[in-house]
Design goal:
Elements (H helix, E strand, L loop, with lengths): L13 H4 L5 E6 L3 H13 L6 E7 L8 H10 L3 E7 L9 E2 L4 H7 L7 E7 H13 L7 E6 L3
Parallel strand pairs: 1-2, 1-5, 2-3, 3-4, 5-6
Length: about 150
């Protein structure tokens, strides 16, 4: 019977904030949760800018929403989905390895100054920030969200 006060959600939707810029998601593990929410919100509003998702997991079996994301990429020309696995369990699974500067250079048009959204564990986000630094990406072009405690 005690009263409670509920607020939220908090934060900002990167797709709504800069609809004229390309978006690149560098996502590790459960960091997909906020990105997925923003992605499907933008798709529902028919307001998705060109968006590429590089999504890193140990294996495809660990990739939350993999089937849904793959289907979205097939159905929406503005969305490219590139899953990566660091510990593949079978041959034939997507890109094997970590998200590296070379992978980003091979898949993203950096001269277009996309907005990078990095989400995942603190270690993952720090690693992605370091990779983006080596590519000369400005801090103004990077949004990060770290998940701790799991």
């Amino acid at each position: 019977g005690a009263p409670i006060r509920i607020e939220g959600p908090f934060g900002s939707n990167i797709f709504a904030r800069v609809p004229e810029r390309n978006i690149v998601g560098l996502i590790g593990g459960i960091g997909i949760t906020p990105f997925r929410s923003m992605l499907f919100d933008a798709l529902g509003r028919r307001a998705l800018p060109p968006t590429t998702l590089l999504y890193s997991n140990r294996s495809l079996a660990d990739a939350a929403f993999d089937t849904e994301l793959a289907r979205a990429a097939i159905n929406h020309k503005n969305f490219t989905y590139i899953p990566t696995v660091t510990n593949p369990t079978a041959t034939g699974e997507v890109f094997h390895g970590y998200i590296t500067a070379d992978l980003i250079k091979d898949t993203i048009e950096l001269t277009a100054r996309p907005l990078f959204y990095c989400a995942g564990s603190l270690r993952f986000v720090v690693g992605m920030r370091s990779v983006l630094d080596t590519l000369g990406v400005s801090d103004d072009d990077v949004v990060t969200e770290e998940f701790t405690g799991y």
